[in-house]
Amino acid sequence: MLALVLSGLFASAAVACSGEATVTTEPAGSTPAREVTAAVAAPSSVKPSPAASAAVGATLDLTGLTDGEGLAVTLVKVVDPARTGNPYSTPEAGSRLVAVQFRLKNTGTAVYQDSPSNGAKVVDEQGQQFGSAYQDTTAGPGFPGSITVAPGDTGLGFITFEVPRASRVTKVQFAMDSGFSPNTGQWSVP
């Protein structure tokens, strides 16, 4: 059984690593659409988009690994700093919590089932990326460990990140399929 699960994970990773990676920064319905594209084998060749990035409140259309997977992802709100929702679980010394609220509307034909926190990151002014933390905050309800969203339906929730107190978060990223999708949405944070 473990071998079957591991082979499935490796197959998913192999599919995710094939083709080109894109970073979507233009809100849905914008003209002209601008994306940063680079071969996955050469991530250092990804150059910043000359266009202004999507801002908080903007919706980006993203695609997944499977035919029929599509989301309109809205970065609803960034709460920085966020207060812990559990007095017994605090950030490490020298760190703070940042809570980011996403709205995920399934625009595809396939059911979207995933752990959204696996595909989300925040980026600071130095380019350091931080993955999600398992912390509740008072900002609002977080996504559960896994969500299922039928075509046409919407999921809404916060994802929490633990970042160094001195870091200034400047970007938020989201990719479908636990971050394995080659299409990543990116928003600028003022």
Q: Which short descriptors sum up this protein?
A:
190 residues, mainly beta, Immunoglobulin-like, 13 strands
Mean pLDDT: 82
Residue share in β-strands: 35-45%
Number of domains: 1
* Number of DSSP-assigned strands: 13
The number of distinct helices, counting runs of at least 4 residues, comes to: 1
How can the largest sheet be summarized?
7 strands, mixed
Radius of gyration: 17 Å
CATH class group: Mainly Beta
Poorly predicted runs: 1-17, 31-50
N-to-C SSE string, H for helix and E for strand: HEEEEEEEEEEEEE
Instruction: Determine the N-to-C terminus distance.
Output: 47 Å
The percentage helix is: under 10%
CATH architectural group: Sandwich
Question: What structural class do the secondary elements suggest?
Answer: mainly beta
**Approximate shape:** globular
> What is the CATH topology?
Immunoglobulin-like
Note down, in words, how this protein is organized.
The protein is mainly β and 190 residues long. The protein has a single domain, classed as Immunoglobulin-like. The chain has one helix and 13 strands. A hairpin with a 4-residue loop joins strand 8 and strand 9. It is globular, with a radius of gyration of 17 Å. The protein starts with a helix and ends with a strand. Mean pLDDT is 82; it is low at 1-17 and 31-50.
List the helices and strands and how they pair.
Layout: H1 2-16, E1 20-24, E2 35-39, E3 54-55, E4 59-63, E5 70-82, E6 95-106, E7 112-114, E8 120-124, E9 129-131, E10 147-149, E11 154-164, E12 169-175, E13 183-188
Parallel strand pairs: 1-13, 3-13
Antiparallel strand pairs: 1-2, 4-5, 5-6, 6-11, 7-10, 8-9, 8-12, 12-13
